[in-house]
Amino acid sequence: MPPTKEGDVYSFAIICSEIITKKSAWDLENQDYDMDELIYKIKRGGRSSIRPSLETDDEHNASLSLLVRDCWNEEVDERPSCSQIRTLIKGLNTNK
Predict the structure, then answer these.
(1) Domain map of the chain by residue range?
(2) What secondary structure letter does DSSP report for 30?
(3) Which of 8, 23, 26, 94 has its CA 20 to 30 A from that of 32?
């Protein structure tokens, strides 16, 4: 399967989740997932698609969590474009 912009947006969301939680995306060290089971569930998708947790003890911008969730939306056409992401991130910067 060739790379797509929508796939890049999904990958961006996974990386953001790691930055927010300061853990690997699925925190496999602390989960009971079997690696093959996890891969199957991610590929299968659907309504009960599996995504990393965004729970953290630190405070972070709730809008960033919403952006991440939008970026890993199972419906590829529902994910924001790169230009939309850039605009939303600029809006998160409260120093400007």
Answers:
(1) 5-92
(2) G
(3) 8
